[in-house]
Amino acid sequence: MKKITTLIIIIFTLLEVRGEWKDTTLRVDFGIYGQGEVMDIRDIRFINIPGWYGKKNRMTEVPLAGNASVKITDAEGDTVYHHTFSTLFNEWYSGERNNGQPAYFENTLLLPMPVDSVGIHIRFNDMHHRPIMEKTITYHPVRSETTQADMTPKYPVRIIRYGGEDAINVCILAEGYRADEMNRFFVAAERGVNELMSYAPFSDYPEAFNFYAVGTPSAESGVSKPSSGLSYDSAFGTHFDTFGSEKYLTVTKVHKMHDALAGIPYQHIIVLGNTPEYGGSGIYNHCMVMAADSDRFLPAFVHEFGHSFGGLADEYYKEEIEEGIYPLDVEPWEPNVTTLKEFGSKWVGMLAPGTPIPTPSESVHLYPVGLYEGGGYVSKGVYRPANECRMRNNTYSTFCPVCQSALRRAIITGLHY
Predict the structure, then answer these.
(1) Phi/psi of residue 390, nearest 5 degrees
(2) How far is the CA of 2 from the CAs of 67, 190, 203, 231, in angstroms?
(3) CB within 8 A of 99, min separation 6: which ones?
(4) Distance (Å, rounded) from C-alpha 317 to C-alpha 323?
(5) Computed over its alpha carbons, how large is the radius of gyration of the chain?
(6) What DSSP state is assigned to residue 176?
(7) 100 plus 212 within the same structural domain
């Protein structure tokens, strides 16, 4: 096994950001409250973190729309920064909202620190891409109440992979591991990263990522599963059964998750849960969660990173399900599924001349990229680009050409080219 380097003292070169930005991160913590048709952004907190590790060029460009966005505007009202993401709130709105029960979701945004007063515009969309909630916050780097972050690293950190100062920073956090179990976490983190980096297009960019494993201890060993009566005192309140889905594993204490990364540069977060129960999640530009002791850990690790980093949709479906979360009268924002409403924005340029629509599965040898009906959990009206892909089947050995193209774009965007 390759030796894992322990990071005792972290020293990072802070790259100068010129113009309207400081070389500082503005962390914005907030909560989203919802009950029926009542929704609001509450409990807003600003935190100043030295160093900015996000994009430094083409600040207003985004590779994907996501289900939510944040824009920063200057004094003239011009957009000077744009970032997109997805949240559990969007999923709640599409489903659980109608049960009448109140819900609260923690969220954190990492933004470049402005030199002057700006407007921060947060918007959440429904599955038709229509706004369901918007909020504008005025922020001034001097006059707005802002907490200075404690940059002292709180937990042991190991460098799993280091690509360089300009690489994409990914931090992996331990969940449900006691301090005396932490070596198992570090081993799992290394296994997951090595598996991911063996897949194209990640294998084509060996120096594109920095992966840091952070040994965040929990008071108790394990991950909560309410449907089985299992409850553990874990660092970030991770649990199965999200929205009634048995294998849907998500984090509730998002702000504590970000607190744990003091002194470490990061843009993306992975949480590894100490449980043999299969489950996980990947939410675009939010975080990824995986059950580290499951026998399906490695293939699922790659699949969920496709969600959280690349914004890829699930391509699997059930024959008996013909209606689902994707409305068929609009084009999904995810790059690897289509309803044919705006297919020109998807992989039409990768189709061979004469490709039949829909593409029969028995013709896969003729059309490695096509329009195969079934995807996004439903069998009718949603099309995927290949008959098989890691986003459809965790036993399949590769991402399809369209997913590889989308992931490559995300890597290049993240490298600030």
Answers:
(1) -60, -25
(2) 39, 9, 17, 35
(3) none
(4) 11
(5) 21
(6) S
(7) no
CB–CB of 15/108 below 8 Å?
no
Q: Which amino acid is at 297?
A: F
Report the CATH number that the domain containing residue 59 is assigned in CATH: 2.60.40.3250
pLDDT tens digit sequence for 398-407: 999 999 999 9
Q: Name the residue type at position 326.
A: Y
Positions of E strands within 67-193: 68-73, 79-85, 103-114, 118-125, 131-139, 146-148, 157-161, 168-175
| Position with higher pLDDT, 2 vs 377 | 377
Does 3 reside within a domain? Answer: no
Pick from 258, 264, 290, 319: nearest CA to 394: 290
The residue segments making up the domain with residue 217 are: 157-311
- Closest residue by Cα to residue 220 from 206, 210, 231, 207: 231
B/e letters for 241-262, b = 16+ CB within 10 Å, e = fewer, are bbeeeebbbbbbbbbebbbbbe
Which pairing describes strands 103-114 and 38-50: parallel, antiparallel, or unpaired?
Answer: unpaired
Residue-level pLDDT at 332: 98
Question: What does the alpha-carbon distance between residue 346 and residue 334 come to, in Å, rounded to a whole number?
Answer: 9
Q: List, for residues 352-373, the tens digit of each pLDDT value.
A: 999 998 999 899 999 999 999 9
d(CA 274, CA 216): 12
Our measurement of the distance from residue 205's CA atom to the centroid of its chain's CA atoms, rounded to an integer in Å, reads 20
Strand, coil or helix: 272: strand
Our count of domains for the chain comes to 3
311, 343, 361 - which closes a domain: 311
Token reading at 231: 């409850």
Q: For residues 51 and 181, give the distance between their C-alpha atoms in angstroms, rounded to a whole number.
A: 32
Query: Residue 75: left (phi > 0), alpha (psi -120 to 50), or beta?
Result: alpha
The single-letter DSSP state of residue 377 is: B
Q: Which of 39, 74, 76 is nearest to 60 (CA)?
A: 74
Please tell me what DSSP assigns to residue 225. Answer: B
Q: Which of 408, 387, 390, 407 is nearest to 399 (CA)?
A: 390
Structure tokens at 373: 């009906």
